[in-house]
């Protein structure tokens, strides 16, 4: 029955997909159409009236902004939800992500923005059904960040799509919902749900370390899980659970797709997952932020294509020159500026991209990392400004040289390098960890053991080592390094 549902679903999505592929032949036309929609929305808002934006010719009069520039407007919009401050549309809910100083950024979710997310999902789903593995059950685990002691908002990927689409896909989803007293409690319930689903076909998550740590949990608790699930699992699956090294590909023999980040600092964890499931198709995620859907992986295009019929894309080169989607060149790293249909116009999202190749007349975009002043190992998004504020409030900057370094590993973690200190390293690390957890995403990453506890190195020779170090020597004495070290690179300074 599920296979028939999947087939029917693909018939429904085919016209939407074909139209999008046709748009890739005419990117300027598609982008102009979205610009007109955004201009029409702006003319109905207080923000647009102040800018005196009326026609498409006024596009360049819209300022390029970051969240801090828009925050007063967003606060006013939250205080007056029925007024057209930033958007003329009804705001269904506010979604949150971490800001540059650690405070949460509030993003309004309107009907049009939700439709953009749904559009991306439909394109991705059809492309996989048409060109990807043969799906029979469609059983899927969509990553959900659960409520732990009610201190985090439960985030479900399916919340970003329309109610009708959500109703359809709910029949395929494996869910673990509720408020859990501890992370371990959530991991236990998730482990049980996954183990009870032998016909699981898809894992869709963000950071691959979310899944690797869950598999580590299952391995560490395999005997307890075996005893608890004796009446729920087949004898062969129970036997697999007792293995000293669980053969994960045998535990879920129907698994066909893992969708997760696989670029930049997530590459190592993604490779680990591929080793666990050598025959499973591993597909990298496109650029998808709380603020907007931006790119998606399409098998037909062999790359990540921009969602050019929902979002306006502009690009800032290293010389601060602005380019449109059709003016890009190979080998240049651009900072992404987006305009979406939920009220954010000419918004600096902080992501950097390069052109990998062209499909039809549209460039495919490869994610090159966050801005130069942001460190992002597993999605924690620590900014230079936030880290500087933390170290200043803790008083560590007064001690002299102070540098926070991301280090890859199992799990990855941060090292604070000090030339001298007036407290012992354990106390320093404890306070640092507490301060960094004011960042929403860092807090989640620590909660779910995707990041290890920070470590502290105190060494009078640290600045001399950094001057000759292969990486930090070029960074001078920055407070935050954004390009991760490998563990062996710290041996000399230790």
Description:
By secondary structure, the chain is α/β, with parallel strands linked by helices. The protein has three domains: 2-113 and 287-370, no CATH class; 136-255, no CATH class; 374-490. Helices cover 36% and strands 20% of the residues. The protein has 16 helices and 22 strands. The chain has helices at 2-23, 27-42, 46-51, 67-79, 111-131, 163-169, 183-195, 208-220, 222-228, 235-241, 248-251, 267-276, 384-394, 425-436, 440-447, 462-468, and strands at residues 91-98, 104-110, 140-142, 144-145, 147-148, 155-156, 179-180, 202-204, 257-260, 281-284, 295-298, 303-306, 312-316, 322-324, 334-339, 347-359, 362-370, 374-375, 382-383, 402-407, 413-418, 455-458. Strands 14-13-15-16-17 form a five-stranded antiparallel sheet. Helix 7 crosses helix 8 and helix 13 crosses helix 14. The longest helix is centred in the first third of the chain and has 22 residues, at 2-23. It is globular and about 65 Å long. The relative contact order is 0.11.
Describe the protein's topology.
Elements: H1 2-23, H2 27-42, H3 46-51, H4 67-79, E1 91-98, E2 104-110, H5 111-131, E3 140-142, E4 144-145, E5 147-148, E6 155-156, H6 163-169, E7 179-180, H7 183-195, E8 202-204, H8 208-220, H9 222-228, H10 235-241, H11 248-251, E9 257-260, H12 267-276, E10 281-284, E11 295-298, E12 303-306, E13 312-316, E14 322-324, E15 334-339, E16 347-359, E17 362-370, E18 374-375, E19 382-383, H13 384-394, E20 402-407, E21 413-418, H14 425-436, H15 440-447, E22 455-458, H16 462-468
Parallel strand pairs: 3-8, 5-7, 8-9, 9-10, 21-22
Antiparallel strand pairs: 1-2, 4-6, 11-12, 13-14, 13-15, 15-16, 16-17, 18-19, 20-21
Helix pairs in contact: 1-5, 7-8, 8-12, 13-14
């Amino acid at each position: 029955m599920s296979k028939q549902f999947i087939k029917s679903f693909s018939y429904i999505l085919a016209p939407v997909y074909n139209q999008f592929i046709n748009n890739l032949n005419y990117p300027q036309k598609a982008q102009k159409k979205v610009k007109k929609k955004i201009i029409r929305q702006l003319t109905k808002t207080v923000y647009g009236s102040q800018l005196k934006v009326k026609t498409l010719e006024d596009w360049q009069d819209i300022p390029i902004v970051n969240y801090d520039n828009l925050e007063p407007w967003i606060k006013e919009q939250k205080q007056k939800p029925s007024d057209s401050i930033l958007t003329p549309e009804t705001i269904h809910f506010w979604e949150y992500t971490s800001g540059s100083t650690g405070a949460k950024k509030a993003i309004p979710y309107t009907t049009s923005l939700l439709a953009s997310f749904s559009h991306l999902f439909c394109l991705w789903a059809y492309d996989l059904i048409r060109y990807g593995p043969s799906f029979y059950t469609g059983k899927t685990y969509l990553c959900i960040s659960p409520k732990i002691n009610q201190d985090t908002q439960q985030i479900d990927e399916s919340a970003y799509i329309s109610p009708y689409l959500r109703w359809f896909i709910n029949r395929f989803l494996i869910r673990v919902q509720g408020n859990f007293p501890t992370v371990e409690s959530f991991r236990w319930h998730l482990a049980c749900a996954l183990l009870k689903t032998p016909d699981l076909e898809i894992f869709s998550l963000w950071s691959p370390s979310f899944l690797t740590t869950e598999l580590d949990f299952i391995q560490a608790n395999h005997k307890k899980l075996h005893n608890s699930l004796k009446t729920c699992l087949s004898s062969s699956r129970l036997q697999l659970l007792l293995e000293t090294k669980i053969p994960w590909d045998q535990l879920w023999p129907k698994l066909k797709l893992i969708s997760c980040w696989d670029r930049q600092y997530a590459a190592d964890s993604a490779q680990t997952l591929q080793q666990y499931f050598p025959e499973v198709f591993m597909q990298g995620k496109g650029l998808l932020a709380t603020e907007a859907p931006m790119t998606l992986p399409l098998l037909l295009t062999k790359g990540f294509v921009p969602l050019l019929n929902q979002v306006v894309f502009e690009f800032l080169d290293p010389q601060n020159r602005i380019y449109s989607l059709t003016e890009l060149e190979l080998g240049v790293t651009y900072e992404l500026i987006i305009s979406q249909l939920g009220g954010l116009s000419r918004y600096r999202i902080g992501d950097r991209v390069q052109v990998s190749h062209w499909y039809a007349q549209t460039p495919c975009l490869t994610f090159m990392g966050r801005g130069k002043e942001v460190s992002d190992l597993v999605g924690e998004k620590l900014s230079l400004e936030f880290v500087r504020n933390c170290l200043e409030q803790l008083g560590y900057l007064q001690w002299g040289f102070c540098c926070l370094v991301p280090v890859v590993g199992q799990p990855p973690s941060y090292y604070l390098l000090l030339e001298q200190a007036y407290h012992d390293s354990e106390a320093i690390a404890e306070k640092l960890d507490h301060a960094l957890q004011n960042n929403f995403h860092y807090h989640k990453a620590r909660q779910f053991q995707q990041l290890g506890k920070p470590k502290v190195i105190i060494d009078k020779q640290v600045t001399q080592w950094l001057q000759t170090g292969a990486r930090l020597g070029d960074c001078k004495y920055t407070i935050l390094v954004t390009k991760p070290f490998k563990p062996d690179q710290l041996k000399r300074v230790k």
